[in-house]
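Chapter review: from sequence to fold.
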Amino acid sequence: MSLVAFLLSLGATCRITRFLTKDSLAAGFRSWVAGRFGDDSKPAYLVSCSWCSSIWVASAMAPLAHWAGGTTGFQITATALSLSYLAGLASRWLD
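The token string follows.
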């Protein structure tokens, strides 16, 4: 895996994890999990814990980056996700 593919997959992992665990657009998903399994269940904790979710997101991202890291489709998608994550960090820091 190239350094570029690694860094892009890192940024994409951060953004996808943030989306799943914190973003209001995924709040319905988190509520569904909590309703289905209970508020104090391990699945409910998993979808609200960034550390917990990131290992699963990274487990999917790593082979994808290894096999498709050099493709244009991967690079465009991972770049967009990485830039989105960095813009979010910058906006919190600058505001």
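Two observations follow directly from the output. The chain is about 80% helix and 0% strand. The longest helix spans residues 72-94.
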